[in-house]
Amino acid sequence: MSKENQEDEEQGQASRRGFLAGSLAAATAVATTGLSALPGLVQPASAATRPNILVIVTDDQPKQTNWATQKIRNWLVTQGVEFNNGHVTTPLCAPSRSSIFSGRYAHNHGVLDNGHPYNLAQNTTVQRYLKQAGYRNGFFGKYLNAWNVADAPPHFEDFALLDPVVYNDGQYNVNGTIQTISGYSTHVIRDFAKGFIQKGTTDTRPWFLYIAPKAPHGPNTPEPQYANTVVPTWDGRPSVFETDKSDKPDYIQSANATLADGRAIREAQLRTLLSVDDAVQAVHDKLVATGQLDNTLVIYIGDNGFTWADHGWTKKSVPYLPSVEVPFYLSWPAGGLGAGTADNRIVANIDIAPTILDAAGITPDTPQNGHSLLSTYNRDHLLVEWWEQGSHTAGSPHTWSSYVSTAKQYTEYYHLHTDSNGQQVGTGTVAFREYYDLANDPYQLVNKLYNATPAQEQALGIPALAAQLAADRTS
């Protein structure tokens, strides 16, 4: 067992089967200290009153999208917890979603790229644990990239798996039957979710519902009513206007996207998110109408962020903050998390599965890298990693890993890539390094390792950071 998992085992035993019963005063302390060490850890509910669990995962949604998600925020932020330092541990769809399901880093769950979803061991997933514990599991929307649409998503009782993932008139595997369903896919997924929730009025089992719309992923096709919605003007941020990129890796030096490019992507993303906002509100209303809202643990997250021409880049897959930071909300009124609080801890997608199992009173039989958000665990940094799929091509980042804290970020790029089986191959030698003082340079404009002397590296603490990063990569 890794040191991190040993610490989790030691610190988590007391709270693994507990949930938080917080108060407004304690919530204020959370916002101030950055901890959710709310008083009132209590014994778990009985099996008959275990919480329902709703997870909503959007596709390519960066943090700065609040304008389009006001209904979501009115529910999950005003009546829940907003994690101000929410991250993904791999800014790519399939690896990130596999981390949500398993609570593990990609180097542990094995889905390193978007081409090998079957590398995920399904016995390590939260849906397996919940099904085994008697939960009724439902899944609607996007599953894992390159998954065969004819294959049922394991451990889900009701499902409508969308593949290929499109906005209009999609092909779905509905409980084993492949069919085309006309209409805007966000609406289709919404309606399946509402039907699943309705079943909770007659089926006494607790349920787990996973909703995954395509939005706001490209091509960012809005539904007709929002096709021409006026989006507030965005003037960019300093990273969009960076002119001297000589201290950046080669793929960033050759990136040439402009503010206009970033604006166009942002505008299209926001328009598709307006439909997600409506859909989530409809799910909320169904929970209220069926009397199931209070004891439903809801978690909302983007599977990765997205850059809007930051450093000339208009994608994800990079270690820069717009790519790895995501909106991350949690609400659970019956668990004391419904008052509207802010949590400043460094949290990530790997924390979702441990949180769910903690709330349900389930102890996993496989190691997890994440930690329950219902516990007092407070990490000082996070490992973020990404693999290049196939041999290196110009204009693409090498495989990289990064040490990320609120104050600094250290990144190494490697001569590594994934092969036809999704396994990493290559020499592993370091191709490039970056270090950013995030406290004073939040837009990552000055790579302090560029032309740094050994003495300067020592002063920055690079040897210790490199050693920690190496340890994290094998945790």
Automatic annotation (TrEMBL):
It comes from the Bacteria. CDD domains: G6S. It is an enzyme of class 3 (hydrolase). GO terms for molecular function: N-acetylglucosamine-6-sulfatase activity. The keyword Cytoplasm does not apply. Keywords: Hydrolase. Its EC number is 3.1.6.14. SUPFAM superfamilies: Alkaline phosphatase-like. Transmembrane segments: none annotated. Coiled coil: none annotated. Residues 51-362 form the Sulfatase N-terminal domain. This is N-acetylglucosamine-6-sulfatase.
